[in-house]
Amino acid sequence: MLVLVVLYIYSEISGERFRELSSSDKLSPNSKASCTVVRVYDGDTFKCKLKNGKEIKVRLIGIDTPESSRNKKAFRDAERSSVSVERIVQMGKKAKSFTKRLLKKGTEVILETDVQVLDRYGRVLAYVYLPDGRMLNEVLVREGYAKVYTFPPNVKYVELFKEAQREARRYGRGLWKEGL
Fold first, then answer.
1. Could you tell me the residue ranges of all domains in the chain?
2. Which of 31, 122, 138, 158 is the most exposed place for a label (fewest CB within 10 A)?
3. Which is catalytic among the residues 59, 134, 142, 173?
4. Residue 20 and residue 31: Cα distance in Å, rounded?
5. Please, which residues have CB within 8 angstroms of residue 68's CB and are 6 or more apart in sequence?
6. Cβ neighbours, 10 Å, residue 130
7. Residue 110 CB coordination number (10 Å)
8. Span between the terminal Cα atoms of the chain, in Å
9. Is residue 85 over pLDDT 60?
């Protein structure tokens, strides 16, 4: 049943539907808006420009990639996981590189918000659909470059992400083969 739902979501967001959704730039709970990629900050955060010209910072909902620079979170993660900061940053750079291959500057994507639109840092929280209809959040988890990382109330696709993570671990994809 989950596969049918995922296929339906992909078919609904592809082709003509993608262009239809891209005409909106209203960011409210449970809405969709188009934006053009400006810059990738790390594996799960990027900047894009809405149709109205406003640039926003977007944080992918439901997932977390390793930090790509030596910052406070990288040190906290190292302490919690017993993995060195250097190793975390190395894995974070691989996740960032993977994301950059999918989110090239100028790429038009669709943002889908959930219940909570902004995080405490003012970033837009979104599920991000690539022009081919795939959800970036899921792709990162399924390919092993991100872990499931959910915060209620934004849990719309948590089961999809959990299944993707199980598959990535089972087949040793991405960073799982390197001790994510």
1. 2-158
2. 122
3. 59
4. 13
5. 42, 43, 89, 92, 93, 95, 96
6. 18
7. 24
8. 29
9. yes
Domain 2-158 is in which class?
A: mainly beta
Active-site option among 12, 17, 123, 163: 123
- Residue 15 burial (CB count, 10 A): 12
Structure tokens at 64: 């977390």
Q: Which pTM does this prediction carry?
A: 0.84
**123 a catalytic residue:** yes
Catalytic annotation, pick one of 67, 112, 138, 143: 67
Amino acid code (one letter) for 163: E
Would you mind telling me the total number of residues written for the chain in this entry?
180
36: β partners: 49, 108
120 is a catalytic site residue: no
Q: What would the two tokens of residue 100 be?
A: 């950059």
Q: Is 167 part of the annotated catalytic residue set? A: no
How does DSSP classify residue 67? -
Give the whole-angstrom CA distance, residue 163 versus residue 59. Answer: 21
Question: Which amino acid type is present at position 37?
Answer: V
